[in-house]
Design goal:
Elements (H helix, E strand, L loop, with lengths): L4 E8 L2 E8 L7 E7 L10 H9 L3 E5 L11 H10 L1 H21 L3 E11 L1 H12 L5 E5 L5 H14 L8 H11 L16 E6 L8 H10 L10 E6 L8 H16 L1
Parallel strand pairs: 3-4, 3-5, 5-6, 6-7, 7-8
Antiparallel strand pairs: 1-2, 2-4
Helix pairs in contact: 3-4
């Protein structure tokens, strides 16, 4: 028998938030998964993960990143943000996750030591940023994300060059972005989260976000997981492009069940 699920919409500060949990437990402190959407997506799209997580006994919390969903911008403004303020948007979302977590914790709705993040593509990048910067993140599932923000900039520029197209940012602008990320690039901060359970899932035919950052992080983290090797996993999917599969839900449910409910 499935539980009745309640989905509640609200705004915390200026952050649009959805909470999804079993109705009979909605106002109790629950293990919680923050779900972060992909580029051009929204919190509503990721209810496909939120409802199953709620059925499994979690509270699912979903927020719109700046420029997305209820915070969407006119097309021209959005394009400008993607070119010139992409990483500010990423960092602001990390900050927003912390803001929402604090508010819900104050309300007694979260179990403070059982909090994880599920990030899809852009959401995976944000998830890695949160893992590196926010000590309360106990575990991360990244689907098609990357922990190497600087590497992503360089790879994207290379892809434009291979297609014979001019990159829309000047060399000076690219270097300014790279310089601004040196202090927060998650792969360079791996010591902050070594030992925490991390699941990375990525298609080998992904032409949008490179897999190399995940592989490099996996290698860097290996020494910290000798006593718990199953807590660090990189799932590489042959022939899979930049899209998830139905297996991603099953993997996520199993992962959070093991590390947040167990």
């Amino acid at each position: 028998m499935t539980a009745d699920i309640l989905c509640q919409s609200e705004t915390i500060g200026d952050i649009p938030v959805l909470q999804v949990a079993a109705a009979e437990q909605f106002y109790q402190a629950l293990p919680t998964v923050f779900i972060q959407h992909d580029l051009l997506g929204s919190k509503d799209w990721e209810l496909r993960y939120g409802y199953p997580l709620a059925q499994a006994g979690f509270r699912a919390v979903l927020i719109d990143a700046p420029g997305h969903g209820e915070r969407r911008l006119p097309a021209v403004s959005f394009d400008q943000m993607m070119l010139h303020a992409f990483w500010e948007m990423v960092q602001q979302t990390v900050t927003d996750l912390d803001t929402v977590r604090f508010e819900l914790l104050q309300r007694g709705l979260l179990q403070a030591d059982r909090l994880g993040i599920l990030g899809i593509s852009l959401g995976g990048m944000i998830g890695f940023g949160a893992l590196a910067q926010l000590p309360w993140v106990r575990t991360l599932v990244s689907l098609m994300g990357t922990p190497d923000w600087i590497g992503f900039i360089e790879w994207t520029r290379q892809q434009w060059a291979l297609q014979g197209e001019d990159f829309p940012l000047s060399e000076a602008q690219v270097q300014e972005q790279i310089q601004s990320l040196h202090a927060t690039n998650p792969i360079d901060q791996f010591a902050q989260f070594a030992g925490k359970p991390i699941l990375m899932w990525h298609g080998l035919a992904d032409g949008v976000v490179p897999i190399e950052g995940n592989r490099n992080l996996w290698r860097k983290l290996q020494p910290a997981y000798t006593e718990q090797p199953d807590a660090l996993q990189l799932v590489e999917m042959p022939g899979q492009g930049h899209s998830t599969t139905s297996a991603c839900l099953d993997l996520s449910l199993s992962w959070f069940g093991r590390y947040l409910l167990g």
